[in-house]
Design goal:
It is built from 24 helices and 19 strands. The protein is of the alpha+beta class.
Length: 751
């Protein structure tokens, strides 16, 4: 399973509760630790078995696909559960896996009989091994750091998912020896001395151990049944009563405080999404993919290490009263080593619906000896305030109502064309997607939905019955790999109608619809239906392919999108519905592509993006991380230089002031460095499900690299530069200008 898949499993809003056991003694430096005395088997309760029976019934009778709870299902569940617990092969020995393999083809029978003990037995063995590994790490950190030799040429394997489980304890110890050595080296590169390194890492791993010891039976039950549900498809999830409450509160919990959605990825807390208009997004310092390793309260509160801490505890520390300050120590998205960590400050606030509203801007473009005004509408999500609408409020918030208003304003400003920017729009209300299409067409179908259960095979089309067209001019839709669900419905309909041109990257490919179904003990989020375009093609798995492709940073990742998820439902088709196209867009596409490709080949921005994507891809493909200090430094400096030269070439070709190279020693001397070490980030995605708090820790550092030599002084200088317009929006405007010229301005045709 990919790192990204594991991220999906770990998503949640404080999903795990825990017993408040007396474990504080394990956090004391140099205190003796014994796994036998610390380990206690976690027990099941009768209600868990009853719930398992009910969950299987829901899966079999209500899921979109035909589900058979048989030996094949059992085998898939076994692999998924094992992968969720120890996908990186860091805890179990080969003999452990052999021991639990007797359950491979019997889990279906046990669950059907209301027996969850096999899930608990597997977890308890894993639980014990995690405790043993953490004790090993603590002992090595507290006793062996002075003996570590960083002149030896040896390497840490970055991705262990395809590796066999360790044959014996000596082999597993060697894996952990290198992991710990890498952690020490990362801190050495930040300038920490030996005493500081030991103190930091000892505290970190002892805190991790303390958190692990707080795991209880509820956690195991949630982890096991979450994997049972996810075996059916990646968007089906089980939530225990406590987790149901958290999930139903949804975004209000996850966004409270700074406006960031968080997940647990191995031992790190990772930023999944920044909410438009939220405190973190406004501060413009935290990025999606950043990992939070420390939290401090107020402007001068001590930064507390949170690596390995449970997600709910991290979230609790980040939340706080409005107008108070929280400081975060973060590893940037394009780095994994703590040598690149920086501290940022964010003032807490309440995230309001208005902050996530559609926005507009007007780009003034000089192209082909003509001036154009291009209206841009950015839509972060397809939102609808159901409660306000139900109350009868006349001014309730809706993405369609807001976009309608913005379109009217753009028409008054006499724009020549409009771009609807849906990049990073993860979807939202289906009805809003349907109505939004209606702003650009007179009447007609917009989407088809195929249902499951008693109505399995029944396909219904939804459409726009209002003949009003709010905007009938040249139109483009800009998407990328994280445009999902409702975004794909809108983009697909605009493309099928040939009402506009779809630009950007392949969309996410989420073409399924989930429904929350209450249970006696908790609830299940179940896939009940699938989306289909009016052309009959599903958006599932394949997404929407743009008419003209732009560089997409997510192209560097092969683990983003529905197609990367284990068990994702397949792409298929249904019968198309009748509709008429608007403009001969398809006829113009060859010439539009030709003109675009010629510009892109000469564009410094496009070439920089393409090169950056390729550099990122190469970094991600590296398999080994050097543990020799000089090799790491040299490699980091080499990559930093490549990035520096690429950026300066872009600036030179655009006539911008060049940056000055800063030597590494100067970077660190004044603590003004912003050096980035390597690349291992993922997009975000959109689904929430529970998993256990001890999920295998990822490699703490990967291939060393750097993306910047910017100092604080440089930042001040850069702040004085005029902000560069998004090159993808500019190119969207040029394509629309070409479309206007090719059509001779006559866009009245309806075919």
């Amino acid at each position: 399973m990919t790192n990204f898949s594991r991220t999906l499993l770990a998503l949640g809003f404080g999903v795990f509760g825990f017993a408040h056991a007396a474990t504080s003694e394990v956090t004391e430096p140099n205190s003796p630790l014994d796994s036998e005395s610390l380990f206690s088997a976690l027990a099941s309760e009768p209600v868990y078995g009853e719930t398992a029976i009910e969950l299987l019934d829901q899966l079999k009778t209500k899921h979109y696909a035909s589900i058979e709870i048989d030996d094949n299902f059992s085998s898939l569940l076994f692999d998924k559960y094992l992968d969720a617990l120890d996908g990186s092969k860091l805890y179990f020995l080969a003999e452990d896996v052999q021991k639990i393999a007797r359950y491979r083809y019997t889990l279906d029978n046990s669950l059907s009989a209301g027996n969850v003990e096999p899930g608990f037995e597997i977890y308890n063995l894993y639980h014990k091994r995690v405790i043993e590994r953490l004790i090993y790490a603590i002992n090595r950190i507290e006793n062996a750091v002075p003996q570590m030799d960083f002149t030896v040429e040896e390497y840490l394997l970055l991705d262990r998912e395809d590796e066999p489980f360790a044959a014996n304890l000596e082999e597993l110890n060697e894996v952990w020896r290198k992991r710990i050595k890498n952690s020490v080296l990362s801190l050495r590169l930040t300038g920490d001395d030996e005493e500081e390194i030991v103190e930091k890492l000892s505290k970190r791993y002892r805190n991790q151990l303390s958190q692990v010891l707080k795991t209880n039976g509820k956690d195991v039950f949630q982890a096991y049944l979450s994997n049972v549900a996810a075996t059916v498809d990646p968007h089906t999830s089980y939530f225990s009563p406590r987790d149901s409450e958290n999930f139903n509160m949804g975004l209000s919990l996850s966004l409270q405080g700074i406006g960031a959605q968080l997940t647990t990825e191995d031992e790190y807390t990772k930023v999944v999404e920044l909410i438009k208009g939220g405190p973190a997004e406004r501060a413009n310092e935290l990025q999606e993919g950043d990992r939070i390793i420390g939290i401090g309260q107020g402007v001068d509160g001590e930064i507390q290490d949170v690596v390995g801490m449970r997600l709910d505890d991290v979230v609790a520390q980040i939340r706080g009263e409005k107008d108070t300050v929280v400081r975060l120590s973060v590893i940037p998205v394009d780095a994994v080593s703590e040598s690149s960590a920086r501290t940022i400050s964010i003032t807490r606030d309440t995230v309001k619906l208005e902050d996530q509203s559609a926005k507009k801007e007007v780009l003034e473009l000089s192209y082909a000896d003509q001036d154009y005004k291009i209206g841009v509408i950015s839509l972060p999500t397809f939102y609808f305030d159901f409660e306000a609408a139900a109350r009868g409020d006349e001014d309730f918030k809706s993405s369609t109502r807001d976009v309608r208003k913005l379109l009217e304003e753009l028409k008054e400003e006499e724009v020549d064309a409009v771009v609807v920017d849906l990049r990073n729009d993860g979807g939202g209300s289906l009805s809003e997607a349907n109505q939004l299409v209606g702003l650009f067409i007179d009447t007609g179908p917009t989407v088809q939905i195929r249902y499951s259960g008693l109505r399995n095979g029944f396909t219904r089309s939804f459409g726009d019955s209002d003949p009003e067209v709010v905007y009938d001019g040249p139109l483009a839709v800009l998407v990328n790999r994280t445009s999902a669900s409702a975004s794909e419905i809108f983009a697909g309909a605009i493309q099928d109608y040939q009402r506009g041109i779809v630009l950007g990257g392949q969309t996410f490919g989420k073409g399924t619809v989930q429904e929350i179904i209450p249970m006696s003990f908790g609830q299940v989020k179940l896939t009940r239906s699938k989306f289909y375009r009016i052309s009959g093609e599903s958006t599932q798995h394949r997404g929407v392919l743009p008419d003209i492709t732009f560089p997409d940073f997510y192209d560097a990742y092969d683990d983003i999108g529905e197609s990367s998820l284990d068990g994702a439902l397949p792409w298929d088709t249904v019968r198309p519905v009748e509709f008429r196209t608007y403009h001969p867009v398809q006829a113009f596409l060859p010439k539009l592509r030709e003109l675009h490709e010629a510009r892109a080949a000469e564009s410094p921005d496009f070439q920089y993006m393409i090169d950056q994507i390729e550099r990122t891809r190469q970094l991600r493909e590296r398999e080994l991380l050097p543990l020799n200090e000089e090799i790491v430094k040299a490699d980091r400096e080499r990559v930093r230089r490549i990035e520096f030269d690429a950026e300066n070439l872009r600036r030179k070709l655009k006539g911008l002031e060049l940056k000055e190279w800063v030597e590494e020693d100067d970077l660190y001397s004044d603590e003004v460095a912003s050096v980035v070490d390597s690349e291992d980030s993922e997009a975000s995605t959109t689904e929430e499900s529970a998993n256990n708090p001890e999920i295998a820790m990822a490699e703490e550092s990967e291939a060393s690299a750097s993306t910047s030599s910017t100092t604080d002084a440089d930042a001040d200088e850069e702040a004085e530069e005029p902000e560069e317009t998004d090159p993808l929006l500019l190119e969207s405007g040029r394509i629309l200008a070409d479309f206007i010229n090719l059509s001779n301005g006559d866009l009245s045709a309806r075919y």
